[in-house]
Amino acid sequence: MGWAVEDFERSLAGAARATVVAYTGDVDAFVAWAARAGITSPAGIDRLVLRRYLAYLAARRYARRTIARKAAALRRYFAWAERAGHVTVDPARRLSAPTGDARLPRVLSHSELSELLEPASAPPRTAATSRAADERRVARDLRDDAVLELLYGSGLRVAECCALDVGDLELDVAAVSVWGKGAKRRRLPVSRPGVEALSSYLERGRPVLAGPQSPPAAVLLNARGARLGTRDVRRILDRRSPVASHPHALRHSFATHLLDGGADLRVVQELLGHSSLRTTQVYTRVSRERLVAAYESAHPRA
Fold this sequence. Notes:
Layout: H1 5-11, H2 17-36, H3 47-59, H4 64-83, H5 110-117, H6 131-153, H7 158-162, E1 169-170, E2 175-179, E3 185-189, H8 192-209, H9 230-240, H10 248-260, H11 265-272, H12 277-298
Antiparallel strand pairs: 1-2, 2-3
């Protein structure tokens, strides 16, 4: 019968692409490990085998967060396998794994954000630069401004930002609609600088970057005229950030600064698109620790 991993992958159609890739990769890795033990189908797996696999990962010094994700992938796979009739009993039900490391998200300071979000200024034109090259550089900078404003001003995930279509934008009412994890759609406010950056990019930047093969609906395009990808966004941060950072740090900063300013936790949950309030609660800890650090550094009696 085999493992039917391709069928399992099709069952994940409603999940985010990154989740599909991670889970199928995790299941493929488990299948390869099981094959070395002579197990050729899910019917040969029991709970003890799964526990041995997690112990094997721990012995190989995989991060706790990675082991936790692999355990989640196996729970998802075997739950599907039971529904599909490949196993009679789900051996992964209630399979426990170490919880992820309690690492707090990196939050950019207000000064770092000010420098990062400062609109790019074009270098002076020289005899060696053509008018077309100047136009493409300006178009790229306008796009980068729009991307950064969306990530911080609206708290978008990088994948949500890259997937934006023109029909998702409502700049006349400062709003944007995105498809989040679990194929859930939510409508978010766009900051005033975000509206300005998007308007400038759509008017003066996108037409320069677009080519004959460009997807007509895509808002954000890369230098080749294709839809902007997550790696492209990482390169934008590498060019623009005054400190080593990651695109997701802007979403972390968005949430933490809202809580710093007194926003209700459930409102922040809604804006971030978290299905569970527990996921959002990590930002309350970040905000609290920032307040303690500010007190200790500024108060004479601290």
